[in-house]
Design brief:
- With about 240 residues, this protein is α/β, with parallel strands linked by helices.
- It has a single domain, classed as Rossmann fold (3-Layer(aba) Sandwich).
- It contains nine helices and seven strands.
- The chain has a seven-stranded mixed sheet, sandwiched between helices.
- Helix 2 crosses helix 3.
- The longest helix has 21 residues.
- The protein is globular.
- The termini are far apart.
- Bound molecules: S-adenosylmethionine.
- The site of S-adenosylmethionine has 19 residues, from strand 2.
Length: about 240
């Protein structure tokens, strides 16, 4: 069973693929205060939950979602059709780093997908080339809230602390106009949804795929419970480009 299928099953009950509640997602998106006919780009869109919600909030906006995998696209279309915004959403299969567009965007999102560009700084540089003057970037990224052991850092990733994360995001010519730091409840809801949905699927699908799904869920849960739990933070930054 490939990683994309595991991730798709794990997000069955928490389609936002980050530790963020629906309420806080809405609050972040309202802060964008987009103007008429806004153009939105969602890099590493997954099931396009952020884009669909934006299209609901901003009724004349259009959105392009880009993802390396189409594992979430069917769910994205179902969501978009249900929200009656499908005619304003386009999904593109491919690498975010290679995506180009004829016209710039008013809002570029990259939530939980900065690895597509090789890290936060490189993501902000790439967004520079896609954003209209004065446009907004909405970027979700992990940070170490408490210093990790060397072993944990090697397992989970190298990140700065919150202050270093804000500085890295702003270095490419932005100012943070709002931010949300995921709360403990949001982390616990996300992680137990991730591992729980996968375990539930594994129990209902005995066989090789079920075994693979259960093994992935147990490995992930151990890494969270005994590793990055209450140490890794997640911040979603709303950044405006400086003139
Ligand atoms: C953690 S998920 C985040 C999904 C979505 N942004 C959200 O918050 O719900 C990361 C997504 O990035 C996608 N991804 C990973 N590498 C990518 C790349 N090089 N180009 C485009 N998408 C990529 C994955 O397929 C996955 O859907």
């Amino acid at each position: 069973m490939d990683r994309q299928t595991i991730s798709h099953l794990a997000h069955a009950h928490h389609p936002i693929a980050s530790p963020i509640s629906g309420t806080n997602l809405n609050r972040l998106l309202r802060r964008a205060r987009l103007g008429p006919d806004a153009r939105i780009l969602d890099l590493g869109c997954g099931q396009a939950v952020w884009s669909v919600r934006l299209l609901e909030l901003y009724r004349d906006a259009t959105a392009d979602g880009v993802d390396l995998s189409d594992a979430g696209f069917e769910a994205a279309w179902e969501l978009a059709v249900g929200a009656e915004v499908a005619s304003r959403l386009s999904l593109h299969l491919g690498s975010a780093a290679e995506f180009t567009a004829a016209e710039p965007y008013d809002l570029v999102l990259c939530v939980g997908a900065t690895h597509a560009f090789g890290g936060l700084g490189a993501t902000m540089e790439a967004i520079n080339g896609l954003l209209a003057p004065g446009g907004l970037a909405l970027v979700g990224e992990g940070f170490w809230d408490r210093p990790p052991s060397e072993e944990l850092e090697a397992e989970v990733g190298t990140y700065p602390d919150l202050s270093g994360t804000v500085a890295e995001a702003e270095a490419a010519g932005y100012r943070t106009v709002y931010a949300h730091v995921s709360e403990r409840d949001e982390w616990y809801d996300y992680e137990f949804s991730w591992t729980g949905s996968l375990m539930d699927w594994a129990l209902r699908n005995p066989g090789a795929d079920g075994d693979a799904a259960m093994a992935a869920a147990l490995e992930h849960r151990k890494m969270w419970l005994d590793g990055y739990r209450d140490r890794l933070g997640f911040v979603t930054l709303v950044l405006r480009r400086t003139p």
